[in-house]
Design brief:
The chain is an alpha/beta fold and about 240 residues long. It is about 35% helix and about 20% strand. The protein folds into two domains: about 1-90, no CATH class; about 110-235, Glutaredoxin.
């Protein structure tokens, strides 16, 4: 779309988790779209993983009509800002926020893991718990999954690590985890579980819970220091 405005509009893609604009607006998921420094679209507009399809302004996103509507809205807002009417766009999008609803404690969930065994909250409670939401189509997720195996080896039974795949076919998930640590609890999540965790708008998303089940930290995306941030928190939880 930027090509329609040569010399006037530049498309910039920022690393999720390392964007000043995202930090300013409390963005906790993607995609989030800014025109200049105005937040004009948030993940809910395109539909959450756990929500009923079609609830967002541009959902379902795979629908050509939804994409055309988003493009028309985007062109209109760009035109307004180029015409010096940025305040109109700001007023229209006032109050728009991508801030996620962060849960305060490890939620109840019940899944079947890839070994066909039950995977429930009760099985992992009483320990420090790390829950990682990931997808087979997410390149940054792979290095984090390998690192999670190292964490599990380091902390042993003091740490429960659960890796939940979203929007990924089970056969692809199984193929991906063959070369990864068998000590992690692997499962394909469902919409109900995603909603229990406040819904999942981006991968990777990592939840850290203390021994009492209280939320210690939620880490979104894959900033360069993701592993360091998590290990710093875990160091204080696993004693």
């Amino acid at each position: 779309m930027a090509a329609k405005y040569p010399g006037k509009v530049t498309f910039v893609s920022e690393n999720f988790g390392a964007s000043k604009l995202a930090e300013q607006y409390g963005v906790k998921g993607y995609p989030a779209v800014f025109v200049d420094d105005v937040l004009v679209a948030v993940p809910r507009d395109f539909g959450y993983f756990g929500e009923v399809e079609g609830t967002g302004r541009y959902a379902p996103w795979r629908n050509a009509g939804s994409q055309a509507k988003f493009q028309a809205d985007l062109v209109r807002m760009v035109d307004l800002i180029l015409a010096g009417k940025k305040e109109l766009v700001s007023q229209e999008r006032a109050g728009l926020s991508s801030a996620a609803h962060e849960i305060t404690a490890l939620p109840k969930f019940s899944l079947t893991d890839l070994a066909r065994h039950p995977l429930t909250t009760d099985q992992i409670s009483g320990r420090v718990v790390l829950v990682e939401f990931w997808a087979t189509w997410c390149p940054p997720c792979r290095s984090t999954l390998e690192w999670l195996g190292q964490l599990k080896q380091k902390y042993g039974d003091n740490l429960a690590v659960v890796a939940l795949a979203v929007e990924s076919p089970e056969d692809t998930v199984r193929s991906t985890v063959k070369s990864l640590s068998p000590d992690l609890r692997w499962a394909v999540t469902d919409a109900q579980t995603a909603q229990a965790f406040g819904d999942i708008t981006s991968v990777p998303t990592m939840f850290l819970f203390d021994r009492s089940g209280k939320t210690a930290r939620v880490l979104y995306g894959a900033p360069p220091d993701l592993h360091q941030q998590a290990e710093k928190v875990l160091g204080g939880l696993v004693k």
